Amino acid sequence: DVKVTQSSRYLVKRTGEKVFLECVQDMDHENMFWYRQDPGLGLRLIYFSYDVKMKEKGDIPEGYSVSREKKERFSLILESASTNQTSMYLCASSTPGQSRTQYFGPGTRLTVL
Amino acid sequence: RKEVEQDPGPFNVPEGATVAFNCTYSNSASQSFFWYRQDCRKEPKLLMSVYSSGNEDGRFTAQLNRASQYISLLIRDSKLSDSATYLCVVNGGYGGATNKLIFGTGTLLAVQP
Predict the structure, then answer these.
(1) Contact A12/A81 with Cβ under 8 angstroms?
(2) Confidence band for B14, pLDDT divided at 50, 70 and 90
């Protein structure tokens, strides 16, 4: 069974803090993704990665960066958190190819005060 | 125009009812289609892929009309446990976008006893 884990379920940070969200998958998947989910807007892709040290911008990369030093781990970094980054953050992984299912982690509910 | 459009609902139906969800997508290059299910405060999970010829999985039937860029999901004999948000999902198209999934904002289903 595929397992994607995220470091925290709930996180509260202050404006201007640097925030790290960690994601780990145990299925040796090449692809990993970071989304945020907001009411009425659905899931929006922030960044994704096809391989170690590879990254591609998604639809809303501004204010975020990512790191993929190991195949199983994909980190999302908020360099200076802002209140408009309060959201649910979801990590996903998949094997390559157009018909590949994405498997999601449980999500991190981030609140920036 | 959103890339994937769904009626947000909510759809309130009695147990045993048949309910249909519709979805349209804008990218004619999309090649893969899915329905995901998301329970309240949980991560999205794959419900079923959607194939050109239509496909069925128990009480669930999915259909695709490529000419109209339209996807549907039919749930027969609704159960209380079917209550969730149903996400229509398409892949991003060719090349690097192949691995990307585009999510609709979801349709909320509430099955009433």
Answers:
(1) no
(2) very high
